[in-house]
Automatic annotation (TrEMBL):
Any GO MF annotation of the entry: DNA-binding transcription factor activity
Protein's name in the database: Putative WRKY transcription factor 70-like protein
Comp. bias intervals (Basic and acidic residues): 92-107
Annotated spans, Disordered: 77-107
DNA sequence: TTTATTTGACCGAG
DNA sequence: CTCGGTCAAATAAA
């Protein structure tokens, strides 16, 4: 593939090289980690694996920082100041339990801001499961599209101000039941610990994950809404029962499951299409495993000022 | 009961 | 104006 052909014009060559270097490094670490996980029987492997994970995170973090540094050079004026999670109303306007028409007439319910210059990339896959917890907040019929588009946001939007959203739309040729998922923004919520993977690695993947594959037959899915995709996005519930640590590790948990390659056979067929930023192309070209990585590794991106 | 999803209205951008 | 993204009341599910 034409690997670095689609670089943003403003990216200095030195940065390109550094980014590539970082990504390659991350890839290397990932490979080692994969080997480690294969030979999991060794008890000392746990520590090494954790170190590797840290290294991987660091590499991706650096690379992405470089990318965003360039990219946001222009947009930053828009973004940095105003693209906070909360529109001016800060999410809820609980004032009146009456109809919102009232609101509309008196106080303007949604003075929210549209995020145009956010990182966005598209994934075409036979599954909409990506290892993240999502909460559906809307669905729209799109012009010239057979299927409606579903809108999801991060469940921690209000907890942690995570701005990540995604839009899922079934492709026109539904013979193969492919979904096009557009991710907008990166997760700023904290996966914050690497404890979870150990638990998962040692045990079999929880069977509850099987219900995340919407493409195939899903016995638990309510039959009434079968006419269109209405992915059961109920992961949020699980997250809100942290029990021990008040922190949620779901992201890393599922991510690790992906690494291990549990029952995600179909994810391998992903196709990526970069829309704004080209880091995704880069990632593809370097053949660094699936997007789930990228999504996860951008967790505390530098955009926080 | 609480929590998640549905769905039509609202809003901003073009 | 239209279109698409978001909000939040109503509804469904657990």
């Amino acid at each position: 593939m034409a690997s670095v052909s689609a670089w943003p014009e403003g990216v200095p060559t030195s940065n390109k090289e550094r980014v590539i270097e970082e990504l390659v490094n991350g890839q290397e670490c990932a490979k080692q980690l994969e080997i480690l996980l294969h030979n999991w029987c060794e008890k000392n492997g746990r520590l090494s694996a954790e170190e590797l994970v840290h290294k991987i995170f660091a590499s991706f973090d650096h690379a992405l920082s470089l990318l965003t540094a360039v990219e946001s050079a222009e947009d930053s004026q828009n973004q940095a100041t105003s693209y906070d999670d909360s529109p001016c109303c800060n999410g809820r306007s609980e004032d009146s339990t009456n109809s919102r028409k009232k609101l509309a007439s008196k106080e303007k319910r949604g003075c929210y801001k549209r995020r145009r210059d956010e990182h966005a990339w598209t994934v075409v896959s036979s599954t909409v499961e990506d290892g993240h917890a999502w909460r559906k907040y809307g669905q729209k019929q799109i012009l010239n599209s057979k299927h409606p588009r579903s809108y999801f946001r991060c469940p921690r939007k209000y907890d942690q101000g995570c701005r990540a959203t995604k839009q899922v739309q079934r492709l026109e040729d539904d013979g193969s039941q492919m979904f096009q998922t557009t991710y907008i923004g990166t997760h700023t919520c904290r996966p914050d610990s690497f404890k979870a993977p150990q638990i998962i690695i040692d045990s079999e993947p929880p069977e509850s994950y099987s219900k995340f594959s919407y493409g195939s037959s899903n016995p638990k899915m309510p039959t009434k809404k079968l006419h269109e995709i209405t992915p059961p996005v109920k992961q949020e519930t699980k997250e809100e029962t942290p029990t021990t640590s008040g922190l949620t590790d779901m992201d890393s948990v599922v991510m690790w499951k992906d690494i291990i390659g549990a029952e995600y056979g179909d994810v391998a067929s992903n196709v990526y299409t970069s829309t704004e930023i080209t880091s995704q192309n880069l990632e593809l070209d370097l053949v660094i495993k699936p997007v789930e990585f990228e999504d996860d590794f951008q967790f505390d991106e530098s955009e926080f000022v």
